[in-house]
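Input:
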Amino acid sequence: MNRDSVQENSPSISPQLEPSDYVTTAQAVQPPLETKKLDSALTIFGTTFVTIFLAEIGDKTQLSTLLMSAQSHLPWVVFVGSAAALITTSLLGVLLGSWIANRLSPKTVERSAGILLLLISVMLLWDVLQG
Amino acid sequence: MDWNLLGISFITVFLSELGDKSQLAAIALSGRGQSPRAVFFGAASALLLTSLLGALAGGAVSELLPTRWLKAIAAVGFAILALRLLWTQREDPAANSAASTK
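Output:
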């Protein structure tokens, strides 16, 4: 009895869906678009991996890691410590990014993400010219 | 296990990476909201590989690899990602799917 009444009530409690929510649900149901979504996740993984790997190789973090491992003669301990730190910082970055994305309009997010990426590109070019 | 060394390497790397390029990139790339998980795995595995290379190769990394050129390539890659974001933002995915069903 109680359960039925909860179910009857639930539609009225459920948050109002915006038109965009319906669009995304409909897209997720269609199989071709779903595979497209997986593709784009792989693409995102690939582009993130390649750009960050190339940007970080020979960077100051890597230099401090190799200095510490050379000094201590315990490379694996240094690797575990720096790996844990790097996983934590990228997790924080991704959490912050999605938190911001949920708060701002997609247009603002895309524009500021584009500007931020341009800034990173300029920072890298600056490193190249300085080194 | 040398816990002291472990703690020192964690804190050093954590502080030097906080607000650095790769974290900013993780923020920017996950902001599009399509697949934050893919961004996290991509960023974390790239960083793991660089620190593995750093720990194993010691000072030899910059001698073995043309790091300046790799960095320049990364700069171009980030610029392309940025321009693509800034250019294609007027494309509405909802409008696109509506057009394709017609």
